[in-house]
């Protein structure tokens, strides 16, 4: 029995491969290396001592996807991470996002619907909620018009999966991530942003290491206690463990519906200034930043209700913001001192 992890050499994918191997699953990774490196396989092996099967393959090639499933006939579950995920880039290059994030999903589902029984876990995002009306955000919150093509591909992806599951043997779990941060405590794998990081935490750690001059804080005039945006920053290892629990739920046929949805967050909202304060604490040095204008498309606040994940999925986060920031900082110092 094998588990396919698409995008398995990426940030969340690689951490999930580690957690799958830790509990005995045999993992097959598909990755096209467009936003990752094959070196990540060595990091995974360094942690678990087990080498996952790695197939370099672009899921946009329908024939390659068909050939993969002809070769691997014992895939018991699929965890689908492979997608483009930069909000800003999706605005300037929407077709790249619609092709990469939607056609790959369709080709995967076309293969899975040939099976009598297939288990599919989809990497979704809290971005589908836009600016939710009520905090914390639960899974029944309204799905608002997407604020970016990236967010739209997640909404469309969820709808496609729901429609296909109704008429096939596919059972699916949609996992809506809040803000994944940090790195594996071993320092063997972590986030490897290409170019200038768009996300807050890798920009902070690169500033801390001296790669960036200072952090631009995008606005301190929001209606929040300190004026900066609030998010739910979840340790990537906690997030990875949620995928193992979700997979086991499907394999054990414990899912209550053909498609289930779970928000994955800590339930705690942290402002940008609070994240900076956490970084100063773990790095033990002052941090250079300046307040600039708001960033287009940012929501004021988003943090998760953890009730359904805790009570139905049977999972909860274990790491604090400081522990996540500490792991991110240790990773940054390690990769810059290689
Ligand atoms: C967090 C906060 C910024 C950078 C996005 C996607 C989401 C997921 C995570 C893929 C905001 C502020 C940031 C900086 C700043 N992506 N910030 N200066 O926008 O909440 O979520 O990334 O899965 O789907 O929507 O994350 O880290 O970009 O921003 O002040 O240089 O940090 O304004 O308030 P975001 P982020």
TrEMBL record:
GO terms for cellular component: cytosol. The keyword NAD applies. Pathway: Carbohydrate metabolism; galactose metabolism. It catalyses: UDP-alpha-D-glucose = UDP-alpha-D-galactose. GO terms for biological process: galactose metabolic process. It comes from the Bacteria. GO terms for molecular function: UDP-glucose 4-epimerase activity. Its cofactor is NAD(+). Its EC number is 5.1.3.2. The keyword Isomerase applies. Residues 4-325 form the NAD(P)-binding domain. Belongs to the NAD(P)-dependent epimerase/dehydratase family. This is UDP-glucose 4-epimerase. It comes from Flavobacterium faecale.
